[in-house]
Amino acid sequence: MDVNPRIRTARWADKEPVAALVAHALHSGPLAQWLVPDPTCRRRILTDVAVIWVEHAMFFGDIQITDDLSAAAMGFHRYRSIPPPSNYRSRLADAASPHARQFELLDQLLTQVRPTEPHYHLAVLAVLPAARRRGIGAAMLTHHESRLDRIDMPSWTETTPDSQDVYRRHGYLPRPALTLPDGPVIAPMRRNPHPAPGSWPVNTARPATVTAPTCPQSDAQR
């Protein structure tokens, strides 16, 4: 049965719980398995890397969460270029070694297909497994799109092919898919805002496609 969750903006005190939520939601998925093939350390690494990006979103974007911390939507205000997280490479090496190369490659490939025009980047929409199929993800997207439509801002996200339908119902259209080297397919999607009277015209520029390079094997794959 669908629910109507109470959604609020995450605070600094929510940083660790939100990172744990994201890691838990992604843990069993194909992207997480590609990033960290070893299941014994996957959740810890995903959590530690998520902390880096949660902090970054609190400075250069926003994070919306349900009051019960069953779901989170993390995004970045890419109205202009933003810097990478502070000391990112060294922090990533500490958090993800020996799998840091996979995270770096993912960042590189997604950056190549991302729009260069001003947009909102919905980087993560995470729903805990126990809370799925209750309409919480759809409620988060409805909340998200209502905010963007007020400022006439395009939105961009990267999801998995089996999750595209819910995004389509909220106005997202698929862009060319990206297959990670020896890994899963990533499905980029774009949503134009619903124009309101007197709003600025929608920017219809499109991102370029990319061919993924061959990825060197990590220590866990050798």
Can you give a write-up of this model?
With 222 residues, the chain is an alpha+beta fold. The chain has a single domain, classed as Gcn5-related N-acetyltransferase (GNAT) (Aminopeptidase, 3-Layer(aba) Sandwich). The chain has helices at 15-26, 30-35, 39-60, 88-96, 100-113, 136-151, 164-168; strands spanning 7-9, 61-66, 71-78, 119-127, 155-159, 173-174, 178-179, 185-191. α6 (136-151) links the parallel β4 and β5 (155-159).
Give the distance, in angstroms, between the N- and C-terminal Cα atoms. 45 Å
Name of the CATH class: Alpha Beta
> What is the strand content?
15-25%
**What is the helical fraction, as a range of percent?**
25-40%
SSE order: EHHHEEHHEHEHEEE
Stretches where pLDDT is under 50 for at least 5 consecutive residues are 195-222
Overall mean pLDDT score? 88
Q: What CATH architecture do you see?
A: 3-Layer(aba) Sandwich
User: How many β-strands, per DSSP?
Assistant: 8
The radius of gyration is 17 Å
Query: Which sheet architecture does the biggest sheet show?
Result: 8 strands, mixed
Keyword list:
222 residues, alpha+beta, Aminopeptidase, 8-stranded mixed sheet, disordered C terminus
Quick overview of this protein structure:
38% of the residues lie in helices and 19% in strands. The protein contains seven helices and eight strands, in the order βαααββααβαβαβββ. The longest helix is centred in the first third of the chain and has 22 residues, at 39-60.
